[in-house]
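Let us work through a complete example step by step.
Step 1: write down the sequence.
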Amino acid sequence: MLEPIDSHDFLNLHNPRNICSTSDHHGELEGVDIVIFVTSAPANFHRRQIIRTTFGNGKHWLLFNKTVVRTVFMLGSTSNHTVQREIDQEYDLYMDIVQEDMIDSYQNLTRKTIMGLKWVTNHCRQAKFTIKADDDVILNMPRIINMLSKAPLHNYTAGHAYVDAAVIRNKHDKFYTSKEFYPNSTYPPYLTGAAYIMSTDLVEATYRTAVTTPLFPWEDVFVGMCLQKMGIKIKTTGYFICVHAENNFCYSGKEQWKLFAVFYNLSEKLMLQAWQSLSPYSTFNG
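Step 2: predict the structure and record it as tokens.
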């Protein structure tokens, strides 16, 4: 492991502090059932807007057992002044963007995930569960609520797990890792980074571990390393994620869509189509 340990001491360019600290009409701090942090690229304005009108809108979740959900977007910095001005305007309008002064790049995805863990720990620790999601997913709300209604509040994870995943040694592959950098032939168990769920006590513990662990370029593997270091065992949650690809059985019929918690690798058009296709299943109890 040649990477440094990163204490994640970046400055906040934007930091909404009141997302999880709203009060009821008696002045009591309202409970939060789920906080969703979405890792998003600075220029992905339209994707963020789609999320705000679909699963990122807390009003939709209230229809299911009055579940209280908060959504926040994680962004790094950009050198494009036009994009930054638009982000500033977006923040002023929605107050749901966390932006730090680290460069937003593929190489910094691990830092961006740590950023989300840190923000939840510092500003939404009262949430029962945390969902980490990329900005090309759609969440199936009733499936997730049904899943979490039976979930423990401590040391809980849900997602698609990779166990004994082989380290890629092909130098032409996007995920090439040299033996000098990482000598083991397999990675520790990890949850695919497109989307996963943790009880928020585990989010805090993972953040504390992450800032004392050498960085690793693949953010989902890095979180797996942290969980292994903490002694947390993970396993695949059945019917958790459907990855959009040709000949994928979970797209072969609408009746199967209701089974999955997350739809991933979607174009903006498919995000809207997935949301519309899921809506007839709002009373799904399976």
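Step 3: interpret the result. The two ends are 44 Å apart (CA to CA).
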